[in-house]
Design goal:
It is a single chain. The protein is mostly helical. Strands 1-2 form a two-stranded antiparallel sheet. The chain binds zinc ion. This is Zinc finger RING-type eukaryotic domain-containing protein. InterPro entries: Znf_RING/FYVE/PHD.
Length: 62
């Protein structure tokens, strides 16, 4: 294996980690206006608001 191939593989792994870190687990897409909640998960602002709103709505219906 050449040195440039090793470097390429390392860069690829780093890209995968970054992609996980910047993706939202609600809409499963890249974060828009990222918000980090207390457990350390990242969500986009809109996805978090929609999730909270739908939870409130469901609980009010009882
Ligand atoms: Zn999202």
């Amino acid at each position: 294996m050449t040195l440039s191939a090793v470097r390429g593989e390392m860069a690829q792994q780093r890209n995968q980690v970054d992609r996980v870190k910047i993706s939202c687990s609600i809409c499963l897409d890249l974060l828009k206006d990222p918000v980090t909640i207390s457990c350390g998960h990242n969500y986009c602002m809109i996805a978090l608001l929609v999730k909270q709103w739908s939870t409130m709505r469901r609980s009010s219906l009882g």
